[in-house]
C-alpha cells in the first residue's frame, strides 16, 4: 500500500497535518488566553502613552511658570519697570506657544502703596502676534475675585511650589481652561504670582476620541474637587453634567480601581484609571466582550481555516509536489544560497509556475534592494562615525577646559565633578588663585544643553576668570563679565555662584547670580545658607552686582551644585529636591571626592531608569585654618 511515492507522500502529509493541526489548535487556545492579557496591556500602554504626553505638557507648563516667577522677582527687585515685565511675559509665551497666555499678578498694594491692582498679562492675538491684555494694562482687571487666583494664592501661602486651579470656563472667550501658578517672593515674602493659562478644549477633544471599542466610554474629571469635566457615556449630556459630582454617574464609585471589572446595565466593563500630575483624572471604561471579541473571532477563523486547509492540502499536494514544486524550489534554493554567500550578480530566471515566477522576481528585487541598502548603510555608518568623532572631540575639548588638578594644600582642599546630560553640556566649575592669599571657586549653569550651551559655557568661564585675574574687585569683575555675556543672539543666560576664599582667615566673599543656595558644613552637619540673589548673567547690561561674605572655620566645608542635582526626575516625574540632597550629605562622614560620588549615587538610585534630564555639577571645598591665624 505504501510502496508508491504518492502514497507515502499522502500518508506522511496526512500524519504531519494531523499532528500540526492538534499542535496549532492547542497553541491557538493558549494564545487566545495570552492575547486577552496582551489586549488589556496594549490598551493600558496606549492610554498610558497619552497620559505621559499630557504629564510632559504639564511639567513644561510648571517649569515655564517657575521661570516667569523668577523673572517676576527680577522685575519686582529691579525697579518695577513695566517694560521689563512685558518683555518677560512675552519671552516666556514665545518660548511656549501652546499656552493661551501668561501673566504676573501682584498681591494688593505690593507694587505701589496706593495701587491695589497690578498685573502684566501677555496673550496670543488673532493675528498670531503677542499682545498685552488691555484690562491689565489699564488696571481695570479685578483678578482678586477670580476663583483661579484665590485657589492658587491659597496653595502658595501654604508653601506649595506651584499650584493648579480647578478647570473653569473663561468668561471672555467661553473656553474651558486651567491655570498654573508659581510664587513671586521678596525676601521669602509672597508678593505675587506668575501664571500660565492652558486651554483644555484642545486636549479634551483628543481625550474624548479615545475609543478602544465601539461602546467604550471616557470620563475626564477632577477627582480631588469631585467635579466632572466631560464624558462620552451614551445618553449623558456634557453641557448639563459638567461640574457635577462624580457620584452623579451611576457606574462610578470612590472604590473604583484600575483593572477591577464592574457591572453596569448588565455589561461587564474593565476600567483604565490615569491620574494626571495636575490633579485631573482620566478613566476609560471598555466592555469586556468587545475587548476580547477580536481574539475570539481570530481563534474561530484560525480553527476553520486549519480544517479547510487540511482537506485541500491532502487533495492537491501530490499533483503540486510532482509537477510544480520540487524542481522550481530546488532551483530557487540553489540560487538563493549563492546569493546568501555574496554572489550579488546572480539573477533568478524562472517562468513557471507563475507563483514561483513571482517569487523569483521578488528574490531579484530583494537582492537589488539589499545591495542598495548595504551601500546606503555603509555611507550612513561613515557619516555617523564622523559625527560621533566630532562630538567626542567636542567633549574632550570641553573636559580639558575644566580643571582636574584639585587643590590638596595645607590651607584648603577642593574636589569637583561635572556629568553632562548629553555628549557635551552647559554646566561648568572652575577654581584658580588670584594672589598668594586669595583663591577663586566658581559653579555655573548655562541655559540649554548641547554644543550651543557648551560654547556659551566656554565664553562664560573665560570671561569670569579673565576679569578676576585682571585684578578687578569681585563686583566690578562680574559686572564686566556680565556685559560680555549679554552680547549673544541666542538669548542664553548663566546662573553662577562665584566665591573668593581668603586662605588666611577663611573669609569667603561671594556673588550669587541667580544660582542654587549652597550648603555649609560645620561639626553639626550640612545646612543651607541663606544667600542673596543677584540677577542671572547675560540678560541685563550694566547690572551692578552686590557681594556678601561669610567665614569658614577650621575643617568646615562648603558644598555647591547646579539645579541638575535637585531637579533630577525619576520615572514618575518627581524631583530629587533640596531635602533629599540635604539628607544625602548628612548620611555619613566622607572625604571630598567620596562626598561627590555619594551624592551622585543617591541621585542615580532615586531616578532609576529615567534618562538624565540636565547636567549634574558639584563642588565641595574644605578650609584648614593656619595655626597662627
Instruction: Kindly report the average pLDDT value.
Output: 83
Kindly state the percentage of residues in helix.
40-55%
Rounded to the nearest angstrom, the distance between the terminal CA atoms is 113 Å
Radius of gyration: 34 Å
Largest sheet properties: 7 strands, antiparallel
β-strand number: 22
What is the tally of helical segments?
13
- Spans of at least 5 consecutive residues whose pLDDT stays below 50 are none
Class by alpha and beta content: alpha+beta
* Morphology call: globular
The fraction of residues in strands falls at 15-25%
Short overview:
With about 625 residues, this protein is an alpha+beta fold.
What does this structure look like?
This protein is α+β, with helices and mostly antiparallel strands and 629 residues long. Helix content is 44%, strand content 22%. It has helices at residues 5-77, 82-95, 134-137, 147-157, 200-208, 238-241, 288-340, 354-401, 450-469, 474-486, 563-566, 577-585, 592-607, and strands at residues 101-106, 119-124, 130-132, 162-164, 168-169, 176-186, 189-199, 217-222, 227-231, 262-264, 267-275, 280-287, 412-419, 427-433, 438-446, 494-502, 507-513, 519-522, 525-528, 548-551, 557-561, 616-623. The strands form four sheets. Strands 1, 2, 3, 4, 5, 6 and 7 form a seven-stranded antiparallel sheet that branches. A hairpin with a 5-residue loop joins β2 (119-124) and β3 (130-132). The longest helix is centred in the N-terminal third of the chain and has 73 residues, at 5-77. 29% of the residues are buried.
Amino acid at each position: 500500500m505504501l510502496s508508491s511515492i504518492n502514497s507515502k507522500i499522502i500518508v506522511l502529509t496526512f500524519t504531519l497535518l494531523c499532528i500540526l493541526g492538534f499542535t496549532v489548535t492547542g497553541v491557538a487556545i493558549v494564545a487566545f488566553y495570552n492575547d486577552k492579557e496582551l489586549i488589556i496591556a496594549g490598551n493600558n500602554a496606549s492610554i498610558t502613552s497619552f497620559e505621559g504626553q499630557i504629564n510632559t505638557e504639564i511639567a513644561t507648563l510648571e517649569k515655564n511658570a517657575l521661570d516667569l516667577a523668577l523673572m517676576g522677582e527680577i522685575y519686582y527687585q529691579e525697579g518695577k519697570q513695566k517694560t521689563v515685565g512685558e518683555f518677560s511675559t512675552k519671552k516666556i509665551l514665545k518660548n511656549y506657544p501652546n499656552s493661551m497666555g501668561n501673566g504676573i499678578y501682584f498681591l494688593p498694594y505690593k507694587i505701589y502703596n496706593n495701587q491695589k491692582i497690578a498685573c502684566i498679562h501677555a496673550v496670543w492675538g488673532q493675528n498670531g502676534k503677542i499682545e498685552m491684555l488691555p484690562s491689565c494694562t489699564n488696571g481695570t482687571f479685578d483678578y482678586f475675585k477670580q476663583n483661579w487666583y484665590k485657589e492658587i494664592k491659597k496653595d502658595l501661602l501654604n508653601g506649595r511650589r506651584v499650584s493648579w486651579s480647578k478647570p473653569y470656563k473663561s468668561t471672555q472667550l467661553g473656553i474651558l481652561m486651567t491655570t498654573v501658578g508659581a510664587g513671586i517672593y521678596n525676601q521669602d515674602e509672597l508678593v505675587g504670582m506668575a501664571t500660565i493659562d492652558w486651554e483644555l478644549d484642545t486636549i479634551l477633544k483628543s481625550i474624548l476620541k479615545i475609543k478602544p471599542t465601539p461602546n467604550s466610554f471616557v470620563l475626564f474629571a477632577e477627582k480631588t474637587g469631585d467635579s466632572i469635566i466631560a464624558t462620552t457615556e451614551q445618553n449623558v449630556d456634557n453641557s448639563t453634567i459638567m461640574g457635577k459630582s462624580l457620584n452623579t454617574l451611576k457606574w462610578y464609585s470612590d472604590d473604583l480601581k484600575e483593572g477591577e471589572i464592574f457591572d453596569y446595565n448588565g455589561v461587564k466593563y474593565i476600567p483604565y484609571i490615569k491620574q494626571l500630575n495636575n490633579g485631573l483624572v482620566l478613566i476609560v471604561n471598555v466592555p469586556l466582550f468587545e475587548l476580547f471579541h477580536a481574539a475570539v473571532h481570530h481563534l474561530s477563523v484560525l480553527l476553520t481555516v486549519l480544517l479547510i486547509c487540511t482537506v485541500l492540502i491532502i487533495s492537491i499536494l501530490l499533483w503540486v509536489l510532482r509537477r510544480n514544486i520540487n524542481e522550481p524550489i530546488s532551483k530557487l534554493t540553489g540560487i538563493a544560497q549563492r546569493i546568501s554567500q555574496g554572489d550579488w550578480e546572480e539573477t533568478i530566471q524562472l517562468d513557471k509556475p507563475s507563483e514561483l515566477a513571482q517569487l523569483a522576481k521578488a528574490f531579484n528585487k530583494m537582492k537589488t534592494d539589499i545591495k542598495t541598502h548595504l551601500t546606503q548603510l555603509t555611507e550612513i555608518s561613515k557619516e555617523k562615525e564622523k559625527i560621533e568623532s566630532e562630538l567626542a572631540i567636542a567633549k574632550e575639548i570641553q573636559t580639558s577646559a575644566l580643571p582636574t588638578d584639585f587643590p590638596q594644600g595645607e590651607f584648603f582642599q577642593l574636589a569637583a565633578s561635572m556629568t553632562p546630560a548629553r555628549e557635551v553640556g552647559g554646566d561648568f566649575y572652575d577654581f584658580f588663585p588670584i594672589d598668594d592669599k586669595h583663591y577663586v571657586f566658581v559653579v555655573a549653569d548655562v541655559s540649554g544643553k548641547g554644543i550651543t550651551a557648551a560654547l556659551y559655557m566656554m565664553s562664560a568661564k573665560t570671561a569670569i576668570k579673565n576679569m578676576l585675574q585682571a585684578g578687578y574687585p569681585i563686583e566690578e569683575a562680574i559686572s564686566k563679565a556680565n556685559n560680555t555675556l549679554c552680547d549673544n543672539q541666542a538669548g542664553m543666560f548663566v546662573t553662577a555662584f562665584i566665591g573668593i576664599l581668603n586662605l588666611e582667615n577663611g573669609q569667603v566673599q561671594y556673588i550669587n547670580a541667580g544660582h542654587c543656595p549652597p550648603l555649609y558644613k560645620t561639626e553639626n552637619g550640612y545646612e543651607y545658607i541663606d544667600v542673596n540673589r543677584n540677577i542671572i548673567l547675560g540678560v541685563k547690561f550694566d547690572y551692578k552686582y552686590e557681594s556678601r561674605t561669610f567665614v569658614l572655620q577650621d575643617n568646615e566645608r562648603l558644598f555647591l551644585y547646579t539645579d541638575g542635582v535637585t531637579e533630577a526626575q525619576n520615572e514618575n516625574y518627581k524631583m530629587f529636591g533640596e531635602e533629599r540632597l540635604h539628607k544625602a550629605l548628612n548620611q555619613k562622614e566622607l572625604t571630598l571626592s567620596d562626598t561627590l560620588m555619594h551624592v551622585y549615587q543617591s541621585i542615580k538610585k532615586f531616578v532609576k531608569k529615567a534618562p538624565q534630564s540636565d547636567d549634574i555639577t558639584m563642588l565641595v571645598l574644605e578650609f584648614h585654618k593656619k595655626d597662627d591665624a
